[in-house]
Design a protein that fits this description.
The protein is α/β, with parallel strands linked by helices and about 500 residues long. The protein folds into two domains: about 240 residues, P-loop containing nucleotide triphosphate hydrolases (Rossmann fold); about 170 residues, Rossmann fold, CATH 3.40.50. It is built from 18 helices and 24 strands. The strands form six sheets. Strands 6-9-10-3-11-12 form a six-stranded mixed sheet, with helices on both faces. The protein has a six-stranded mixed sheet with strand order 18-21-22-15-23-24, sandwiched between helices. A hairpin with a 2-residue loop joins β11 and β12. α14 crosses α15. It is globular. The relative contact order is 0.11. The structure holds adenosine-5'-triphosphate (ATP) and magnesium ion (MG). The site of magnesium ion has 6 residues, from α1.
Length: about 500
């Protein structure tokens, strides 16, 4: 075999590439290369530069200096179109589909098959079906994308990438929104893509996943590449140390003891909402952290939104602090001491074009406003600043728009906002999704602190370890009903999974 300095399978390489946004150096002198047929994972804390690296490959951003080569030739990717021409495509951290268009439209967008100047729908459909067939990924092509589950929407994004004859695919946290069995399916697909010669760039905060699936791992810290190594040389601990520069120690704080005489803070009776959840009854005591486990789509988030006043239940009632609580709207719930960290930061949580300050304080403006003096900006600023510090948000100014924060830091804004209200009842729906390990530890500590001072927490999570590590007691939901209640040492992975998958 011929020997050469660079690996002949190298598809894309970076040599001392720099990228900054204003004063933020998102990527500094980064040298790394990606090979055909290999899964190359990128790990690092929130804001380390992972998505930026991915976006440079995809032409979403262009590099400031340094060299990017594709097939050994220097290129300048000034748009995603440039990248697609080289076969470089991506599955983004936030899905970017057109919800009002059909599956086939979304997959074929920009690549419709034409006859002369006209788009041929029949040919386009045939091509899409052929791609589905080739990869064994089937979704009804006539359905509207907005009506699909998150996992299916993601498949549409993947099919769209495959439809462009991708040679390299960037997956930016593809499993953050998936249930564990869906994640397994995705892993199989990624492996088979690599086997057939595609280069895969895989960004994830799930270190077990990265260790299981990748061939190579590059570690980023503050925009710099710390190292690239073969996956077999890394362990979970070596990655954590490399990412954070320290040993994180125990991820979960000790569970605070609950005073056995403590009162019930929230009582839910027979809460029902058509087609979402049915006859849900439970209590949470002061100081208690109640987990809700179950598969995505089992009605957990819908239940949370009903309690929080986002969508009215059809029947049933709730009591707060021993008194009947009429669910009106979110403002009323907030006034009565509730706060919620919603599941999806884009759809339910953040105004991306507004500042970090506004996003954090928005629900509580009344608190900072007096009838005579108007809005007390200083007080607002200092409380927001404190909350952002506690939740370790990496930002370059409270006035900056939230859209410029990294994905994980956007997630933390939702937690910072909820924590601002010093809630008596915190409803947290997948609060650590896409958040790095150091920030996870902080979020668990904040939950534990609330419990210690006698507040109650309802924690919805698809991460079984998180439920086991944090909750005193957990309910498992399946198809809109509570199918199991587990306490203390009964909360195990197998007990949760068995209940979640149980058929009635
Ligand atoms: N369009 C942009 N404008 C301004 N700053 C940006 C922009 N995109 C990224 N940044 C900044 O660049 C840095 C790196 O962000 P990046 O999104 O690459 O992080 P990440 O490693 O993907 O983090 P996460 O795990 O949270 O997704 C962050 O400080 C971020 O705020
Ligand atoms: Mg990112």
């Amino acid at each position: 075999m011929e020997k050469s300095n660079s690996n002949s399978n190298t598809l894309v390489s970076f040599e001392k590439v720099n990228k900054s946004f204003g004063a933020t150096n998102a990527l500094i002198k980064c040298s790394v290369s990606f090979e055909a047929g290999k899964i190359h994972a990128l790990v690092g804390e929130n804001g380390a530069g992972k998505s930026t690296l991915g976006k440079l490959i995809l032409g979403v951003h262009s590099h400031d200096s340094g060299i990017i080569k594709v097939d050994g030739n220097e290129v300048f990717l000034s748009s995603p179109r440039d990248a697609v021409k080289h076969g470089l495509v991506g599955i983004s951290q936030e899905l970017s589909l057109l919800p009002d268009r059909t599956v086939v439209d979304n997959i074929a967008i920009g690549r419709e098959t034409t006859i002369g100047p006209f788009v041929s729908s029949k040919k386009t459909l045939e091509k899409v079906l052929a791609v589905m067939e080739e990869y064994g990924l089937f979704i009804d092509p006539t359905k509207l994308v907005g009506s699909l589950s998150v996992a299916d929407q993601q498949k549409v994004e993947i099919l769209r990438a495959l439809n462009t004859n991708a040679r390299l695919i960037v997956f930016d946290e593809p499993t953050a929104r998936l249930a564990s069995h869906q994640a397994d399916q995705l892993h199989d697909l990624v492996r088979s893509l690599a086997k057939s010669g595609t280069a895969v760039v895989y960004i994830s905060h799930f270190l077990e996943e990265v260790l299981k699936i990748s061939d190579t791992i590059s570690l980023l810290r503050n925009g710099e590449k710390v190292r690239t190594d073969s996956t077999s040389k890394e362990t979970k601990n070596s990655l954590i140390e490399g990412m954070t520069g320290r040993d994180v120690g125990n991820l979960f704080p000790n569970k605070p003891a609950i005073d056995p005489t403590s009162e019930v803070l929230l009582r839910v009776r027979n809460l029902t909402r058509e087609n979402e959840f049915k006859d849900i009854s439970f209590e949470i005591k002061k100081g208690e952290i109640l987990g809700i486990a179950g598969l995505v789509g089992s009605g957990r988030s819908e239940l949370a939104h009903a309690i929080y006043g986002n969508r009215a239940p059809d029947s049933g009632s709730i009591e707060l602090y021993g008194k009947e609580f009429i669910i009106k709207d979110v403002a009323h719930s907030i006034k009565n001491g509730m706060a919620m960290v919603p599941e999806s930061r884009r759809d339910q949580g953040l105004l991306l074009e507004r500042s970090l300050l506004e996003n954090t304080s928005l629900p509580y403006l009344e608190k900072f406003t007096s009838w005579i003096y108007g809005l007390n900006k200083e007080e607002e600023y200092s409380e927001v600043d404190e909350s952002c510090k506690t939740t370790m948000i990496k930002h370059s100014g409270l006035e900056k728009e939230v859209q410029y924060l990294s994905g994980g830091n956007q997630q933390k804004v939702l937690f910072a906002r909820a924590a601002m209200n010093k809630p008596k009842l915190l409803i947290a729906d997948e609060p650590t999704r896409g958040v790095d390990i150091g920030a996870k530890q902080v979020i668990y500590e904040l939950i534990s602190q609330l419990s210690k001072v006698g507040e109650a927490v309802l924690l919805i999570s698809s991460e079984v370890e998180e439920i086991i590590g944090v909750a005193h007691r957990t309910l498992v939901m399946s198809r809109g009903k509570v199918v199991a209640e587990l306490k203390g040492s009964q909360i195990t992975k197998s007990a949760i999974m068995e209940a979640a998958f149980k058929q009635d």
